[in-house]
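request received
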Amino acid sequence: MRKQLLFLGAITLALGSVSMVGCGGRQSKEDQYVDGKLAISIRNLYFSGYAGGDNYLKEIEDKFEVSFTLTDYQWDQWETQINGAISADNLTDVFHANIDSYNFSNYYKDWAMDEMIKPLPSDLSRWPEIKKMIDNTTNIDSLKINGKLYGIPIAKRTDDPSTTYSPFTYIYRRDWAKEWGVYQENDEYTWEEFETLLETFRANLASTNRYALCDVPWGFPSIPNFYKQVPHCFAQDETGKYVNNYTTDAYIEGLEMAKKFKDNDWYYPDQNDVGETKSRELYTSNKVGVYYENLSYENFVKIKTMLRDNNASVAGFDLDEATAIMKIRGSEDNQYSANQYVLEGTDNWFSMTFFDFKISDQKMYKVLDILDWLLSEEGTLFAVYGFEDYDFVINEQTGKAEIVEDYWPKDKYTGEYLPKTNGARYLRYLASLGYDLLEDDPLTDKKALEYLNNWDKEMKTAYEKGELKVLKESKEVMWLTTEKKAFNSGNMRKNALNNVMKYIYGTIATIDEFKGTFGNIWNSVLEEINTALGKK
Amino acid sequence: MARNKLERLPLARREKRSPATKIGPLDIVIFVILLIFALLIIFPFYYLFVVSITPQEIYANTPFLLWTPVVTFDAYYGVFTNKAIWNGFGITCILLFGGTLYQLFFTVITGYALSRQNWFGKNFVMNMILVTMFFGGGLIPYYLLIKSLNMLDTIWVMIIPGAIDTFNMLLMRNYFATLPKELEESARVDGANDIQIFVKIFLPLSLPMLATIGLFFAVGNWNSWYNGMLFNSSKELKTLQQVLQDIIVTASSTIPNPSPGKINTENLKMAAIFFTILPMMCFYPFLQRYFVKGIVVGALKG
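response:
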């Protein structure tokens, strides 16, 4: 017995000593210099594939007398890498984190309260471009903690911050719909017409082991997304009280439709196990007719490019004719979206650039100086094109930038412009994804952009007319931090989606049984939310 | 007339060989089953290779690809001209050779020491090592430890912490423990010291186990990525598997990124995977005989 106790004691001592390693106070980092230039380390997801060392980055380093060390995150390990670095106090001077996925927790608040991240200066007038961008950013107050903003929300676009929805919707084979007589003018369908199209696709594709519909895995099942009231967990009933979004009548109707889609063999049979790459490949290799995805510019271009390449030798294949975004709205008697399209609401940002709490004001101001310049007209031209009179010239008549063709490499087969490695472009991603620059960017697929812009205009018009329903969780509950909500809501959503799958695949037999899977945790979290918000 | 070869064999050998010359229905069934198993194992590698040399369009439009009508090595050109892959290859080779030798050294000498006769604290050391098989300090304490040892953003973080693999050390220890004590005693009589006994007597007798464990370590080091992902941010320190992961994951991510760059086609991904697994596939058969023997020896005598 004595031996065992000694043994246990030794283990405890060993584990304790390991745990204590590094538990020192948080001390400010002293500024380091490389060849007389202020050293700044930056870690950002978008630096993936970028190695630095180009003349554009060097120009910025010389201009601002800084020396960068740029590193990236791995997309599927982003959160792990950040959490490790945060917990072990091993942050780069500037780093990039996804705040969207923390909507259901209070990590960001914890980082601020624990002095892991440094707040922006309260007076941003020294950096007018950054100030303008932040002032225009949607829902900015939600990101403030005790009146302070602890990072730069990376704006999707700086010219039009009113972006209110994400393009999570269906893209389909318009050529097949026309061929089999189910095409609707202007790609506009009601849900009933959508079902007819799926059945027609199924009937025509089944003999060649092809399928009607596939969802990107994170979007499966897609149909309830168009029926539910809010994107995530907490919907409101008629009295304003918060209820479980997954048990509302609207969601249940969408869920029943999803089950019908599966039972009618409209879905790709392995939909439940399909990966992101595979799901996209199914559509672009002509194996499914309708595909649900986030149709952002880059995804849309990827899909179109792959579809084009996979049909390169098909005589008469017209890419622009072959594929289109579906616009599906509820029919007049649809009680949840009568004559309305439905899209998921979003803010103008989903991730933020943070500053390590320990960096000096001098360093933080220097980074802000650089970003402010990159957001200015001069910096933007530099980030999009490069050096004036080398990479681009200003057309005196139009006043617009034009590339100097001789210095831009082109693809020898397609004639498309190839990207130049421009560090300024990557650094600009610390503040903005710059979708508004796509028009000017010589690398942009202009046709795809024009198509998406037209779709966007249609949706905006529909929104103004009340024909677009934008699903958005209310700010008061989205950013409410209460103990049970912070602790449970991530798992609540996961469990809810698991049960949704079980219902669709028949493991849960009835809707009553499905509703019964939401137990005490849901009730207690909802009760806590309603109490905190005075909704009793 | 000369007798045929079989008749010329001694009777005992003739009797031994004769059943093998008869192929019964059961043999055919066994053969077919084994053939199916072999195909199941070989086919994924074959398919990987075929896709890697197939143009994207043919791959996308062929439901079941057994061979490609058009062969292209463009994907391999893409792989071989990718600097990141070669850089990752270099790092992984350092891990493969340096890491494997380092791990073998510590694992073997620890196993040997713990297999010897009782010395003060042996059981305590043994138990402390055993504990690590069942309990871990957790990710954050481990991160803090690595940080306090100044190993962040260095290649050492992928080598040094893996000095002793408890399971393999136990295999080694058990094996050493089964070797006759008399060998050690007679060497001592001949004037050999501890190091000489270890190097000249025990190590040569342990070749199958060394090959087996060496192979475990080599495969582990070749596939290593987690420590690099977690502790290193420098692109220059990315292992081959991390680069491969980048190639595959970047192609599938749906994260908003206004400059998606080149789309990695399936044949490029497969070529990168093939390039990554090929060295291990070539390495494996040469150690297989030791591998099987080593496992059996360790298992029976343990």
